[in-house]
Design brief:
single chain, 166 residues, globular, START-like_dom_sf, ASHA1/2-like_C
Length: 166
């Protein structure tokens, strides 16, 4: 399958924002449930455990990664049904992510923003987020699950070039 990357890069005063979006023909509350309820996140990313509230740390299992590792994620902001901001720290660095939802005429746009401290790994990170957002789409419309091999390494050059555009 030949997928087309959608990510865009915006420079900010604090670094760069990698922005990807998807549109759903659904009310914002339903899309919000897909990104915040553990049984629904399990269908496209992984389940989570803990107290899901701002300032709290939850445990998330990445079931679509090798060995399905658990990791901790801090909830920075939770403003139903419009904004979820989370952060995590792992061996690759800090991950600061926001999911922003907006509904118009029965259609909800999800804007996914990864706040990058630097762009060193954008060639690997970008295809990964494209994959996970398409997993969300597949989970919502019961379409076949995408294959990560359709995203990486074929999308690597696109995202690396975003970084070089300056």
């Amino acid at each position: 399958m030949n997928r087309i990357p959608t990510g865009r890069l915006f420079r900010t005063s604090e670094g760069s924002d990698l922005v990807l979006s998807r549109t759903f023909r659904a009310p914002v509350e339903d899309v919000w449930a897909s990104i915040t309820e553990s049984d629904r996140t399990a269908r496209w990313f992984g389940p989570w455990e803990g107290h899901g509230a701002p300032g709290q740390t939850i445990k998330v299992r990445m079931v679509y990664e090798e060995q399905a590792p658990w990791f901790e994620m801090r909830i920075e902001a939770c403003e139903p049904p419009k904004r979820l901001a989370v952060s995590a720290l792992d061996e690759f660095g800090a991950w600061r992510v926001e999911l922003l939802l907006e509904e118009r005429d029965g259609t909800t746009e999800l804007r996914f923003v990864h706040h990058l401290d630097n762009e060193d790994a954008i060639g690997e990170v970008g295809p990964g987020w494209e994959y996970y957002l398409d997993m969300l789409v597949a989970a919502r419309d019961d379409s076949p699950t995408p294959d990560f091999d359709d995203y990486y390494p074929s999308m690597r050059a696109y995202f690396a070039e975003l970084s070089q555009r300056g």
